[in-house]
């Protein structure tokens, strides 16, 4: 990839940086050391990421173009229209690379006696199985759209996959149709085994094999089918109807998203031009949309669900989530955290402690109130059921639930309605702000006083993602911290009041100001001849103000180490600007999701865990919480696990000036940080 144009040579454009992050995901799919089926699943993650990118970021840039604006200041020095073209060219190259990787994986699968066959490779026994499967399971659920000039094309589903069918009729006329690939079925149909050989056919090819059954009422000479996919603008647009509740407005907006403006059109590059032009005209695809010629199959995100086929040897070994030393699932969590703070790092340690805390609160007669923020819940949520249980037991339960958690809106709406029906007090955030903080506070009657217990986390209270996302959760009875947490819930109820927080750093109130103070303290330390250093771990950094402040610290001589999984608009290692900043990105088995800020503070480290990345939205437009770590043992644990991540020389990539994703290689002993972190916690149990 050619080096992108930079604004004053100070920043990487965030969209380009994000695409480079997705290239790191693609590297995992191409890595011969990653188990084969896991490689397929990384291809699925790459594709799913790209879908969301087009729905959100590409759509945003397109809106800038359509508004007639240049957008250079907001887009890192690149004009919006130029950026759309750059994005499309990068994506075309990445899609081509992903197709090469897919073909290689298919060959490796055949070496393992796993065959993914198409409609031209079906034998007689498989034909009989497929026919029966089609007639009994697929055909009744099939949606087929017959196209003609007089009928308006129905809105195609966002990110839905369709077979574009062209029939040459016996009278030499053309008839076009669309067959929707059913989402209700697994994309991969397992065929009967032949000895040691496993066979899979994609449902797309199963439909191609059965075209004659679908279109048997048409008198055609030839028939062909090629896949297409459309991606729509994923932004939510709200009505101003005062008669509707907030839940109704969100629900209506989610439904409207289904007919949002198209932003990307992907098609099988072997499709004939007549069919392609007919469809593009019908769908209103124009030159501001990203038009991408692709391979035979789209929606490769479905590979995230590729069947295991009983082949554990082609998967990562499952880890058993570990207990936390000193904290028991069979005893009172409140009594344990009354004595000291405890830290949970998922997925290395079990998320069950979070559920156990809430279940204990739901049953404990001394617990009077429970307050919690919710951003994304699991499909089947024990967190939600525990809160409902608490309400049934007469506790005062307050849930701040974010109905605008992107692409999880409907699930949150469903849970919100269920909880509301059980008498839970629901708060739908703050006008103009997303509530992204992750926290819970419980008030328990002890003697004549109320004592608070709670937890603050870097991640969602979601049992499913806790198995694959790395996140910290601090369990505490520290009244200083929990008093501040309680103030945030007061802010939700009376958000016209600005509260003062003595311990938590909060957005949108004071994140930038307080972080700047901490950075200034490191700058001052260097000026006084002390060692000033900053160590940061986050998902993304795109706020130019935060980047500029780190540049200022670097110029002053502060040593800065950063682990950034995703977007990084900061350019490290530039003489006179950022020579004291190093940045790596770790992409591996688990998704790195925790946010940690470590400041030297003259040898007495100040450490925060946070829900906030250093992006403008997290600092100015969301409710976020950064929580101080006061326990010395937990401070030591966070520093040691940061050191493990920083030492990674297997899955760490160096983010340099052009973000080319070169692996961090050195002569030191090999450290694969996620595996080493698990071993670290395993050893702590024996210590």
UniProtKB/TrEMBL annotation:
Catalytically driven reaction(s): [phosphate](n) + ATP = [phosphate](n+1) + ADP
Residues of the Polyphosphate kinase N-terminal domain: 11-116
Residues in Polyphosphate kinase C-terminal domain copies: 332-497, 504-674
Polyphosphate kinase middle domain span: 126-306
Residues that bind Mg(2+): 376, 406
Cofactor(s) the protein needs: Mg(2+)
Post-translational modification: An intermediate of this reaction is the autophosphorylated ppk in which a phosphate is covalently linked to a histidine residue through a N-P bond.
Broad EC category: transferase
Active site positions, chain numbering: 436
Top-level taxon: Bacteria
Signal peptide positions on this chain: none
GO molecular function: polyphosphate kinase activity
Enzyme Commission number, as recorded: 2.7.4.1
Keywords: ATP-binding, Kinase, Magnesium, Metal-binding, Nucleotide-binding, Phosphoprotein, Transferase
Binding-site residues for ATP, renumbered to this chain: 49, 469, 565, 593
Pfam family membership, one: PP_kinase_C
Similarity comment: Belongs to the polyphosphate kinase 1 (PPK1) family.
Protein role: Catalyzes the reversible transfer of the terminal phosphate of ATP to form a long-chain polyphosphate (polyP).
UniProt name for this protein: Polyphosphate kinase
